[in-house]
Amino acid sequence: MHAYRTGFVALATLAALAACGGAAPSAPEAVLPASPSGSPEPASPSGSPEPTGQPGQVLAGKIVVIDPGHNGGNAAHPKEINRQVDIITGKKACNTTGTETDAGYPEHAFTWDVARRLKPILEKMGAKVVFTRSDDKGVGPCVTERAAIGNEARADAVLSIHGDGAAPSGHGFHVIMPGPVEGQNDAIIKPSRRLGVAVRNAYHAGTGLPYATYTGTDGLQTRTDLGGLNLSTRPAVFVECGNMRNRGDAAKMSDPTFRERMARALAGGLRKYLS
After folding, report:
1. Which of 145, 152, 240, 260 is catalytic?
2. Which of 81, 66, 80, 170 has its CA nearest to residue 111?
3. Active site residue 240
4. Strand, coil or helix: what is 90?
């Protein structure tokens, strides 16, 4: 997936690593902002979810969990984010710092901005939207907790937003779907694929970005090494919105107007799947 800087960037250099997880908090901060600028609400509802939205709204009664990858405080807390957690198929770091463009625009800020733009679009359609983190200043949450938030919220769809950090020569986007982990996620494999295809199609049409030239097939990839997917009991996918190390993709991802376009495209994919 994309390259990462380890938590030790707080001391000096960036180190590119492979893989992008979704993640669980080293501290209990996984909450849902009431609005992009509003006060936080609990991320995991107790009991059965109450229907949301007004009659006639296309996503009324639907729950969408949005997972903005990484977090702004991760780099300053290497001990917390490098802690190993169990993702069933192995052990991985609790979280990572993510990648960035050559100009220094960080992945965590990109994913947070796209998520904040996506939330009101979905709410206008009647959906209840849950975030896995409340701001872009915290630490974590770990991949295990991010998955748990979607599970406990009884999400109808979980979308983890990322930016890749691949070789600069590669460009384009891809959607990652869960591969089968025996005895764990059998029930979500088929619906997650439908979700992945819907998001892939809508994002491609809405942004004009090509399928990734460096990984996946036709903009789709299946993996079993991501905790956010392995541990999910709800339909879930990751979207690598572009390669932040590629000059052309980075220019688009750094543009607020284009990030709005990305958010609207993602909303279109979620709407297609959920309705």
Report:
1. 240
2. 66
3. yes
4. coil
The three-state secondary structure class of 118 is: helix
Give yes or no for a contact between 241 and 162, defined as CB atoms under 8 angstroms apart: yes
pTM: 0.82
Render pLDDT for 220-241 as a digit per residue (tens, 0 to 9): 999 999 999 999 999 999 999 9
CA distances from 151 to 45, 67, 156, 173, 192 (A): 10, 13, 10, 26, 14
Coil vs helix vs strand at 150: helix
Structure token digits, residue 70: 């990484």
